[in-house]
Amino acid sequence: MSDIAHHLQQVQAQIATAAGKAGRAPDEIQLLAVSKTKPLSAIQEAYAAGQRRFGESYAQEAVLKVQAAQAAGLEIEWHFIGPLQSNKTRPVAAHFDWVDSVDRLKIAERLNEQRPDSLPPLNVCIQVNISGESQKSGTTDAAVFDLARAISALPRLRLRGLMAIAENTDDEGAIQRSFSQLHDLFVHLHESFPSMDTLSMGMTQDLEIAVASGSTQVRIGTAIFGAREYRQE
């Protein structure tokens, strides 16, 4: 068994344990393997171990990996999870299945315009800045409803949920409060937008808190692939 396969097993066991503590079924929580900055070979190892959902943040690098994976016959569900600049929307619209980080209408409109007719609607999540940190992307709680309503009217997009990144802090109480706030917002929005079925929150360091707070998708990179190289596109 490869190191990546072993790490995947450990993460899956951690999700199952967290779900059990929260009185939830493990299959309620999807694992999104964050493969940004990692080579195709690492993705292939995770794929061989059964992983099918992968998250990328750098458009130019990601598109090359998507194309290479397709050429290798890998059937992957690709999520774009990073901040998306308006000049990078076209390749993302053409190559990804999901964009989990839509934070403003301009980006949604460009994705809708540039999504090829030959592909199914692009699944999107709205990123919410739950920590209030200026360096983090995401819309505000107050603006989410209007953005959700606008996205739901775009024919080549399908509104699927909310995504957030917790504050980088050791204060687990603060993380729990912000996750619970996002969960409450998600439940409220679902009443008006029933296509919303995804609440993406929780990463390697706060997975258990996220699962206890109702997350349906956790984004795990370091615990699967090891430390990543920090870079900007």
From TrEMBL:
Cited InterPro entries: Ala_racemase_N (IPR001608), PLP-binding_barrel (IPR029066), PyrdxlP_homeostasis (IPR011078)
Short name of any one Pfam family annotated for the protein: Ala_racemase_N
Source superkingdom: Bacteria
Gene3D superfamilies named among the record's database cross-references: Alanine racemase (3.20.20.10)
Keywords, alphabetical: Pyridoxal phosphate
Alanine racemase N-terminal domain span: 7-228
Residue numbers of N6-(pyridoxal phosphate)lysine PTMs: 36
HAMAP family named among the record's database cross-references: PLP_homeostasis
Functional description taken from the UniProt entry: Pyridoxal 5'-phosphate (PLP)-binding protein, which is involved in PLP homeostasis.
Family per similarity comment: Belongs to the pyridoxal phosphate-binding protein YggS/PROSC family.
Protein name: Pyridoxal phosphate homeostasis protein
Lineage of producing organism: Bacteria, Pseudomonadati, Pseudomonadota, Gammaproteobacteria, Aeromonadales
